[in-house]
Queue: 2 jobs
Job 1
Amino acid sequence: ADQNALSEAADRNGQLTKPPGALGRLEDVALWYASWRGEAAPQISAPQVIIFAGNHGVTAQGVSAFPAEVTAQMVMNFEHGGAAINQLAKTFGASLNVHALDLDRPTADFTEGPAMTEAEVVAALQTGWNAVDANADVLVTGEMGIGNTTSAAAIGAALLGGAAADWTGRGTGVDDAGLANKTRVVEQGLAANAGRDGLEVLRKLGGRELAAMVGAIARARFGQIPVILDGFICCAAAACLEKEEAGALDHCVAGHLSAEGAHEKLLAGIGKEPLLSLGLRLGEGSGAALALGVLKAALACHSGMATFAEAGVSDA
Amino acid sequence: ADQNALSEAADRNGQLTKPPGALGRLEDVALWYASWRGEAAPQISAPQVIIFAGNHGVTAQGVSAFPAEVTAQMVMNFEHGGAAINQLAKTFGASLNVHALDLDRPTADFTEGPAMTEAEVVAALQTGWNAVDANADVLVTGEMGIGNTTSAAAIGAALLGGAAADWTGRGTGVDDAGLANKTRVVEQGLAANAGRDGLEVLRKLGGRELAAMVGAIARARFGQIPVILDGFICCAAAACLEKEEAGALDHCVAGHLSAEGAHEKLLAGIGKEPLLSLGLRLGEGSGAALALGVLKAALACHSGMATFAEAGVSDA
């Protein structure tokens, strides 16, 4: 982050025609955004949403309410413009790219060993890295992958500790028996995969779409592109990066608090306060895309408002 | 609200390509909006933001951190496009109208008797009523008026009970001594004005911009135009209407929870759960305009998404 830009942005913020602090968190995120863009009064004009899709071997254990074919079907839906994320990206003027990662070759079932080989996780990281548009001025990373709340629960438990049951939720909507089974699967995954390093956990308990999100988030950092994190799965992936290097998510803001129960613990683990809390639990980057509206509004105010002097308004 | 439209909208919602309930509160507000528009799959294409400005005799008691001249100065700022609400309206594609109500003739100081005569409150209600564009498809009512958190605090206490201190906050930023003085002023206003009917409270403790918001909210109801309520002052005005007739705010959603301390109690008093909570305390309709982004997104999803059948996606 650029401390000069931050300081200039803070000076500007203090002169805008409003009582000090009256725009609340909009002021905080505007300053944070300005510091990462290296400009005192930046605009948001080129948001990019990227959805990564992957399939999970662990679906063989019956962890989802939906069949694994739905991953590929939803990729078609994204491409045809029919999903929630299509409408959200359009509403807030974002480009939308979809990357399906080897859907016909699911990861290995992590109850029996690592989900991915080193070559596989590196390939997925690279797909994510390369998917970022260098000209984007804010990035949303979303995902689709039947079974991936199971993966995210295992990652949360591996990185942050606690029992499998504390991290396992209903995902797309499993019943009580399904939840008990899913919890057992997470426990088995933790038992079958030693090692608690960030990137090792990503490889062993994650999935291709999670690794791709990690690659994209890392790439955004090098391009001074602020990132809005989505829900449980996106934050599980991001937590692997933070665990690998503290501060690696300083260019990221949490878009929302998901209704998937353990998301709050995951956000606390990466030290992020969500912008929105509207009970979403869809993935696809939907909560982050919704928060894009808030971030755009924050920068529109910060960079577009008149100062007291410009407007001839008396200060307090 | 149109129960047929609501039922058709709920049917549609159940067929969209997402797990049931996965869009959380976006689904609730989409159905609420559809019921008030009388359409199963409506779009939002013509949002209107109206700011009403008024001056308050009670500013003679030193209740604000800013001088009373700032009301007129901010009206100029709205007209020149320099305020926060201008940037927010532009961000979310809303038209913006500004109505200054007799700024050179402040209301009477309510510590000495009613703020307005009957003719004055009726004129302000009419201004609000007439300001609504019959072709708008959602309405945000905002306000500007130095001294009006004092008025809103007195209204809250009069309508919902409790001590003046429970309802009085720092507004644009008074210090401890200022807060003590403001609390005394609210107490005196309550003592000087008997009668706890909704519209009587509005006349005696309110202001022209509050009455105009009431007129606009009532007019919107007759035009099937859903309303997004803003913060403390807007909700105090709206509460007068609800007190006059229970259910009068059923066509309204609460846009946000303000940082002005008593807003939460006021929202509870009118039975509304805010969409956003971002620490805003600016007025001008700013919190409601920010929530307009959420409402637009909700309807874009509801009316734009493909169904499982259309997209060829397997249901759970």
Job 2
Amino acid sequence: MKIYIVGIGLIGGSMGMDIKTVYPEVTVYGVDSNENHLQQALALGVIDVASELEGVSDADFVIVSVPVDVALTVLPKVLDLIGENTIVFEVGSTKAPICEAVANHPRRRNFIATHPIAGTEFSGPSAAIAGLFQGKTNIICEVERTAFKLQEKALDLFKAIGMRIRYMEPKSHDKHIAYMSHLSHISSFMLGKTVLNKEKHEQDIFDMAGSGFESTVRLAKSSPAMWTPIFKQNRKQVVKTLDEYISNLTHFKDLLVSEDYDAIYEEMESVNKIKEILNGMLK
Amino acid sequence: MKIYIVGIGLIGGSMGMDIKTVYPEVTVYGVDSNENHLQQALALGVIDVASELEGVSDADFVIVSVPVDVALTVLPKVLDLIGENTIVFEVGSTKAPICEAVANHPRRRNFIATHPIAGTEFSGPSAAIAGLFQGKTNIICEVERTAFKLQEKALDLFKAIGMRIRYMEPKSHDKHIAYMSHLSHISSFMLGKTVLNKEKHEQDIFDMAGSGFESTVRLAKSSPAMWTPIFKQNRKQVVKTLDEYISNLTHFKDLLVSEDYDAIYEEMESVNKIKEILNGMLK
């Protein structure tokens, strides 16, 4: 089996590692515009061979794991180059723009639009983690537009690396992921900004950082090169979630200003139920 | 050695466990207004004896680990009851109101105001964790107002359970901790609220929850009974941090609305440096 990974970062690299474990006969070819990343990936054993995009013609699978703006141009190129039985999937955090970009491509039936809900705040091949996808959700969009025979093969691969599958329309995906992921990133970045601005004038404030701060600000370590195009492609939904978040924060602040502590207690108590929901969802 | 813990929750309970480990000869007495918690703490071995407040008269240490509003009334009562050589410390997340409440107490020199920066989003004796304080910071306020002989004993205990010590004025503590802890909790609670409000109309959205969402929303599981009085006592500082946070979020939203992606990239990139700061601070 011949697998190409286009973009060897955290997701592409982790896919490579897991695929090599479950399919020992596979050869993993890596393509990356960053020569350092390619050499790192080779040295780490995340890929077997450093290659070029043109090599995808006889690949069994091509995984496109590049920033979502790059995917808009790279994915059609990959589809231009592949053979009849090659399966291509892309793993970015927005799905509608990607699906639109290849909607009329002659090889559309070779493509499967996915979003594996997995990752960390780090990036690059050195951030790859074996077993990253175990027990995680893979959201597949427009599954009916992929050839059935190829769908099956892709699902086998996703299941082999431990993922559970959910089907969703691209627009629903983008709307919901704005709440469940994109908003978290902005809340974290702006929390980091608020504290850093303060810290300019107050040294030693980070001595007071505990695990709670670390947890809420963790995503502020994420890559701007990856996240700027995500926010761009999902701009309308992200603006909507931000409006709602800012409105909730302003309401909470107003309750504090007016010293309505019963209402503050109730606000927090009503959100506490997220405990049970997360316990049920995240195993 | 005789130690009283008044309020056997996450912090009090964890203190009890660690103290019993480092001072095997100690007897830990527990006092709690919640009879269930007291019985749980006994069953878990977090305390040795269920007791009453009146027993503190010949204690070596009294740890007051109750919600910060309760501390304002319980702490003076404890100081009324103790003997000449008893050391009392309180561990809440606000320091100025506590220090004011006992500023003129005849036993002020037996009291040491502390804030161990440690914990989780859970509460009650079953949330107690052995080794919770290992490598964590304990902020001590107004140290000069505690009798020197008693300071030494308290520091020995804090060091024995693995804490490093920082000294700070109560008002500085409250101002800084608003940024490093209180704001994180509100950002998390309101993130949870925003998503829960959305979820009312959109089932299955939590299927998309990944580790990033879990991390940013973790503190929204915290106890309203513990946090409402913290926000009340530190109201002015918390409102100020919320104003700054909301302003940063609004600015980010405005950049998205006006599609200024270079500025969005720079916003995130400039916050990325929190990576190095946290790496340096959190070991």
